[in-house]
Design brief:
The protein is an alpha+beta fold and 272 residues long. It folds into four domains: 1-41, no CATH class; 65-167; 173-181 and 198-232, no CATH class; 233-272. 54% of the residues lie in helices and 14% in strands. The protein has seven helices and nine strands. A hairpin with a 5-residue loop joins strand 6 and strand 7 (244-248).
Length: 272
Amino acid sequence: ACGRGMSGRTVAPKRRKRGPYHYYVCARKDEEKGRAGCPNRSHRAEPLEARVRGFALRLIGDPDALRERVEQQARAMRESEPWLREAREAEKARERLAKLEVVEDRYRDQQAEGLITMAKLREKLYGTREERERLRARLAVLADGETRLRELEELPQLVEEYLKELPYLVDRMPVVREYETVPNPKTEENPSGLYTLTPERIRHLPEEEVGARRLAAEAARGARFRELYALLDLRVAVHASGDLDVTVGTTNTKEVMPWNGSGSPSTTSTPT
């Protein structure tokens, strides 16, 4: 690994019956063709992604590891300089809003006692109203960060509730059939749309539609895994030998997955 990112490529040879194949290539190697580019070779996407998915699924299958990862993210966010700065700003804005209410009450008392005119009262209240609106608008922006933090802080409790189902929910692939049934329309006489399954109610799907549904299912699963990788802060380095260095989270715990040449990876763990 030279340290540069890898990008995906797709090749679709005309004579290949199984369709296109996908692989990853080093960006440096791509940029420096004919020069001293990266010596790392290209890597087929399917086995590489399968190994990373397997690692992530094993990780979330460990409740303690997943809970710790979520708590680390919440702690890192809470202790980050931008979050602390925004928290202080939000606190000062709320204090100022409370003071503005007191100030407005004093202005009204002054007008009631004849110390200021009604026109002066309206002028002063207009100024405090403008400031109050600015503060509330800023608090609405800052509330997004507070909401994200609350969600992260609540997530460890939710982990216990759905952890057993999480690997399945992430990795599940719906069954894509080559046919579908044609239901009855719902009417007053048949509000549930009940029907008897007969050959006439089976619609065979075109090959293109079946392929599109399978691609959509794959894309949905890929999106779920990308969200999982972001949650775990998972990064992968690929060596020319096929070995993977998988780094997880802010603690930089590294998982080394050597490729043993027989088609199956073995895993060792080393803190960095």
